Every structure is written in structure tokens, then in C-alpha cells.
């Protein structure tokens, strides 16, 4: 038996674009189901919105996202941060570089941190804050 905690990002009308962007960054297999495909579109404008999107990225990463349907309260900005960490400097640096493309804000550049790791923090183009920590990376 296993248990897994997965980031699930709620967006307003941007889930498809966000999942495509994250697919470019994390690679792997992307599946998207729309409200229309599931017969759950209460409003015809919701038919092509993402009811559930799942990215099974490389290195065991799993990320999910969806759009808020019309008439429901949905997120305008993310209220959580997603943290990536480990000792695979090449992969984590590549993820950082991908996530930083078009970022709204680079809060802390990816650089040697006081605790000895390499660390960076940014808010991506979809308003999601990412923290990247590379353990024991040579710097």
C-alpha cells in the first residue's frame, strides 16, 4: 500500500495553458479531461475547460490542475507554494530554468544559500510560487 500527496492547482480559465507549460518543463505524460467530455458542463462556455488535468512527469513528479467552472468561486491567485528539492542538480536546474520562462516574479534567484544548498524561488506566469532547493550542490 502507498500514499501520495499531490499538488493540485486550481485555476480560472488557464489550466490547459498551465498544464502544457508544465509538460514542457517536467516532460512525461499529460492527460486532460474537459467538463464537456464528462457531461458536466452546466454552462456551454465550460465545455472545453479542464475538469481534470494530470501530468505524470519525469522523476516521479505528479502535478494536477483544473479550471473553476462558470458561476463558481475560483482562485484568482494561488495560495500555496510548490517545492521541488533533491540532489539531481541537472534536473532541478532545468526545471528552474523552464519555470522561470515568463515568470511574474523571481523572488530569489537560483543561487548558493546560507545553509549550503542552492535555492531559488519564483512566481510563474500562472501565479504559482515555486521553491527549488538543490541539496549539497557545488557552487
Q: Could you describe the 3D structure shown?
A:
The strands form two sheets. Strands 1-4-3-2 form a four-stranded mixed beta sheet, covered by helices on one side. The chain folds into two domains: 60 residues, Roll (2,3-Dihydroxybiphenyl 1,2-Dioxygenase, domain 1); 54 residues, Signal recognition particle alu RNA binding heterodimer, srp9/1, CATH 3.30.720. The chain contains two helices and eight strands; from the N terminus they run E-H-E-E-E-E-H-E-E-E. A hairpin with a 5-residue loop joins strand 6 and strand 7. The chain starts with 7 loop residues before the first strand and ends in a 5-residue tail after the last strand. The mean pLDDT is 93. It is an alpha/beta fold and 139 residues long.
Number of domains: 2
Provide a count of the helices: 2
- Report the mean per-residue pLDDT as an integer: 93
Helix content: 10-25%
Instruction: Assign the CATH topology of the largest domain.
Output: 2,3-Dihydroxybiphenyl 1,2-Dioxygenase, domain 1
Strand order of the largest sheet: 1-4-3-2
Radius of gyration (CA) equals 16 Å
The CATH homologous superfamily of the largest domain is termed 2,3-Dihydroxybiphenyl 1,2-Dioxygenase, domain 1
Helix-strand makeup class: alpha/beta
Spell out the helices and strands N to C.
EHEEEEHEEE
- Strand proportion, as a percent range, falls in 35-45%
| Largest β sheet strand count, sense and barrel closure | 4 strands, mixed
Rough outline: elongated
Distance between the termini: 39 Å
Number of strands: 8
Indicate the CATH class of the largest domain. Alpha Beta
Work out the oligomeric state of the chains in this entry. Answer: single chain
Query: Which CATH-level-2 architecture of the largest domain?
Result: Roll
Low-confidence stretches: none
Amino acid at each position: 500500500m502507498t500514499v501520495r500527496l499531490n499538488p493540485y492547482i486550481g485555476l480560472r480559465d488557464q489550466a490547459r495553458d498551465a498544464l502544457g507549460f508544465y509538460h514542457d518543463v517536467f516532460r512525461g505524460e499529460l492527460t486532460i479531461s474537459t467538463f464537456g467530455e464528462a457531461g458536466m458542463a452546466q454552462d456551454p462556455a465550460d465545455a472545453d475547460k479542464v475538469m481534470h488535468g494530470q501530468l505524470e512527469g519525469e522523476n516521479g513528479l505528479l502535478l494536477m490542475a483544473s479550471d473553476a467552472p462558470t458561476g463558481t468561486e475560483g482562485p484568482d491567485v494561488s495560495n500555496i507554494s510548490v517545492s521541488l528539492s533533491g540532489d539531481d542538480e541537472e534536473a532541478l536546474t532545468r526545471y528552474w530554468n523552464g519555470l522561470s520562462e515568463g515568470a511574474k516574479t523571481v523572488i530569489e534567484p537560483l543561487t548558493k544559500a546560507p545553509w549550503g544548498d542552492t535555492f531559488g524561488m519564483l512566481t510563474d506566469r500562472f501565479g504559482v510560487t515555486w521553491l527549488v532547493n538543490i541539496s549539497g550542490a557545488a557552487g
